[in-house]
What does this fold into?
Amino acid sequence: MPRQAPAPDPTSKPFWDACNEKKLMVQYCTFCERKQFPPQAACGECGWSFHLTWVEVTGRGTILDYSITYDTRIRSLQADQPFNNAVITLDEDPDIRFFSMLPGVPVDEVPVGGKVEVDFIDVDGQLIPEWKVLA
It folds into this structure.
């Protein structure tokens, strides 16, 4: 399935740089001791920006829920309709959510509650996280 390459900004660049090293990173506030994703300029809890750092997470998680896209306006995805849109929670912090099309999983056969692990796929020279279901 064709994907669109991300356009990193100063806030998200550390995340994308880590992906290129096949590492999954999330922001961490040393003041609140709280992880957050997606990247933000300041902590979503305390509002401080200078307490934010990055920490690596295992890339293991659980499928919380999913939906199916039958009709998208994104031209590069139209040829692959319908496709899954899974919500992934991280084992380290279930409040953090990632989204995945779950490559290799047939439409509407998403194992909700199933365990997943991050994988990285190349999109125009940028590795992006994608999730695979563990057997």
